[in-house]
Amino acid sequence: MRPNILYIVVPCYNEEEVLSETARRLGAKLRSLMSTGKIGPQSRVLFVNDGSKDGTWQEILRLHKENHLFCGVDLSRNRGHQNALLAGLMTAHEKADMVISMDADLQDDVDAVDAMVDKYLEGVDIVYGVRSSRKKDSFFKRTTAEAFYRLMNCLGAETVFNHADYRLMSRRALEGLAQFKEVNLFLRGIVPMIGYRTDVVEYQRGERFAGESKYPFHKMFSFAMEGVTSLSTKPIRYIAGLGFFIFLVAAAMLVYSVVRWATGATIMGWASVMCSVWAIGGLILLSLGIIGEYVGKLYLESKGRPRFIIREILDDDHGPIS
Ligand code: UDP
Ligand code: MG
Questions:
Q1: Which of 7, 68, 224, 313 could, after both became Cys, cross-link 92 (CB 3.0–4.6 A)?
Q2: What is the CA radius of gyration of the chain?
Q3: Separation between Cα atoms, residue 305 and residue 291, nearest integer Å
């Protein structure tokens, strides 16, 4: 039987500072796995350049020229982490038996790849890399990220706790993923929907090797909104519940007002009227905003725009590597 081909997909946005070190470590990992015979010599590292403004693509070209172990996909413009990752996965799945996705900044422990490949060889289709500790992340990042996972689950977007996009997927799992056509892409919510046998590998999350995070707070916030609204309609149901509750309060207020009127004390209550006007006005606007978010999503989905456009693919004929 021919050994399995592994592709490691790495989305990169302005990552020129870290690429050579990432390539060195991933290259060494592939070679060591090839020497044990667990993966075939056609295995590759696939860098996806997500419309970087710095010299990331030049760096990928250089790496590819030096060694065909490295290949690349250049997107036509910046499309964001999730779309870049999808572009890489869809390019790799035609050639690979298993694909691992990983960030470029080496925060994901490269040594967890061995355990993932072992699980694949045992017959697991999706292996999630789960962070056993986030001590290396800043306090702010850790608390906001953990609050994010809890909030997501309670709003109905079920995700694997403390799992980001470091995971192994088999070819048939990727074929499953290819059938999800949604434009509002939130991979870590979609992948668990694919099914098949899944397992978890724990790893310690390290610090970013160089450069800055490409996920500032506003991007994280919109990512969280994307996650919730693309996976679940629970927020709309909560709004309906809130509307019902406010209706009950209004009924009670009606009884109260009638009683006050009957006892002749009707002038009081300016403050409470003002507060209710503001509170209810605010709630209505918030509810409309949430519903608008879903309507906007529908609008985008109905257009069915492409999720990414590829400018160039660097690949080789799967010949021997140096
Ligand atoms: N990334 C990307 N496109 C973007 C933003 C980020 O491809 O528009 C990549 C980035 O190069 C990195 C990964 O997504 O490989 C995760 O980003 P980062 O490490 O900055 O996020 P953090 O770990 O701080 O959440
Ligand atoms: Mg990072």
A1: 7
A2: 25
A3: 22
